[in-house]
Amino acid sequence: MTNNPNSIETPNEKKISRRDVLKTAGVGGVGVLLGASGFGGLLSMTESKAVTKESAEIVSFYGKHQSGITTKAQNHIYFVSLDVTTSKKEDLIKLFKDWTKASALMTEGKTVGELSSNEFLPPKDTGEAAGLSPSNLTITFGVGPSLFVKNNQDRFRLKQKQPKELVDLPKFPLDALEEEWTGGDLCIQACADDLQVAFHAIRNLIRIARGKAILRWAQTGFQRSKQADTKNETPRNLFGFKDGTINPDVNSEKEMNEIVWVQPGDGPNWLVNGSYLVVRRIQMFIEVWDRTLLKEQENTFGRHRVSGAPLGQKNEFDKPDFNHKDENGQVFIPADSHFRLSRGDGTQKILRRGFSYSDGMDVKTGALDAGLLFVGFQRTPSRQFIPIQTRLSNMDKLNEYISHRGSAIFACLPGTKQGGFIGETLFN
Amino acid sequence: MKLLKVSGVLILSSSLLFGCSNTDNNSTAEKAKETKDKSAEAFKGVTDDYRQYAIGEIEEFVKATETFTTAVKSGDIEKAKELYGTSRMHYERAEPIAEVFGDLDPKIDAREGDVPEAEWTGYHRIEKGLWVENTTKGYEQYADQLMKDVNLLRAKVDTVDVTPELLITGAVDLLNEVSTSKVTGEEDRYSHTDLYDFAANVEGAEKIYQLLNPVLTKKDAALSKDIQSKFDNVYNLLNKHKKDTGYKSYTDLSQAEVKELSQAIDALAEPLSQIGIVTEAS
């Protein structure tokens, strides 16, 4: 992210996806390609400050870890939970192999198959992403506790491999979970800077799964787009507050290994370099919040709304002082504020990667159906999400304005190399 | 009932042909035509068999409609209700053929709102009388009209050109009918006999699969096996909803059961949509 004119990275290739490169090369050879790239660079020099490495808008699918976890959050998420319907382990393995291949192609902006010349067949790729930028698409796969044991059945002879940490989350006080938004054998998280690209990914993966797995629930979400937030500030949630100020540094390998990635010795080896994903569909009572006084709103979060600074302080990233008292002897940051409770003593951290959702209108009440699709990654849920959420569900002032409607936990598999497949460490 | 069926298919296939923008349009079109001609010959036996099957179903449909309309006209409401679901099954099985007649299909099978009120006739019109108004009175004329239209259908069916394409698209179309109107309970919205139509559509699709199966097995035995197992799965689910000699009312299905049926149809229709590989040279 530098503005160094000597940077070795090609300046601004953002309008030239890999597909375009291939196409151009096919048509006119390298000369045309270089010409195009140089031209684009010149034209958009002024507008492209921070665009360097990500400018091809391709996030590599392959790697030690799956992408979409420490990847900078894209503008959109399309999250689905699936139930496996086949009872055959080989079907499941084939599914992950096919998914891996298709995902690698789609993240590069390619179609999942060539258009057949047989007009009596439906096209392999569904087509709506044709010509679109890869849009930093990432596709992340996870397995839920019920893949291992469901109704006391060791369905795929995987029971012995089930990690102790991969169990249904405990019921937290005030949980109002609905069956149709809860659980799942598998999950796919597709994130992209374009919703149509994310939709295309999910749609094609579900299609590939037909006959082997079915949709259990699905939720899209958004953050303010990069175009709208040129200063790259901390995103705001739908209550208008900055959300994600304190998030571990994804560029620090050490921090990620401590907080996010499962390490050797943590549990079964198949999950090393993977991570636990907790997802919660949290409804926000938008109308109720909107008539809440500013002071109350700020006390609820423990931060100033405009700056995001801890109450009683000036700047968003100021170190919070929980003992700081006003002239009446009251602490600035209430003990039951969301900020204070989430933080606890500061030792329990998770990598949050949440998105807002808006599902139109709640037909029962006529209110907006909107909220937060909380997505958090961690190495050990029992020492991270669970204690944090226990504190929040017991005391958080924010509970008056939200309701947890959906919940699931998945083990996100480690990444794979070209030629391998996601899930190979689990199934082999 | 699909009013725009025929033109819809035409538009789709032409956009498929010309949609492959980077390849040579002409050669693709020519190739496709070649495939078509060749397959028409190769599938002569299969298309003849299908024609026989469809005509057989339409003949049964004529008989069943006779009994049904007689019951309506004689004011035997209970009998008419009893016959409604089963009579329609013959039509639903042979739908790829029955639907070819764009003028007759709406007359026989239009649902309320599909056509202007004044033109609305056929099974569903009488259905509304039987279940909503709980009467046959005033429906005698609809019974007569229906019988006429069904007889005309029988006469016209002999003229249908049964092509391999009709079979290939017909099999999946039958299941699409299930997905879009039967599994949602919209087809028989007054009688709630949707599961009869559901089962009949699936049986009609299976017949086509069976006829094409010898060729399919040679091309891709695994695909054929997969399709068969998905048909079995759908029948297993349907069997859970049998009642007496027929099926449960749609309204007796839970939301979860509806979803289960719907997803089972998707799981079947996806591999079935690959059945067009039978047209490829081995």
Structure described in brief:
In chain A, 25% of the residues lie in helices and 17% in strands. By secondary structure, chain A is an alpha+beta fold. Chain A has a domain at 1-56.
Spatial ordering of strands, largest sheet of chain B: 1-2
User: Biggest β-sheet of chain B, characterized?
Assistant: 2 strands, antiparallel
Number of E-type strands of chain B:
2
**The number of domains of chain B:** 2
User: How far apart are the first and last residues' alpha carbons of chain A, in Å?
Assistant: 40 Å
Q: SSE order of chain A in H/E notation?
A: HEHEHEHEHEHHHEEEHEH
- Assembly status: heterodimer
Q: Give the fraction of residues assigned to helices of chain B.
A: over 70%
| pLDDT < 50 stretches of chain B | 2-25
Instruction: Round the Cα radius of gyration of chain A to an integer and report it.
Output: 23 Å
CATH class group of the largest domain in chain B: Mainly Alpha
In the predicted model, the low-confidence regions of chain A spanning at least 5 consecutive residues are: 1-54
Beta-strand share of residues of chain B: under 5%
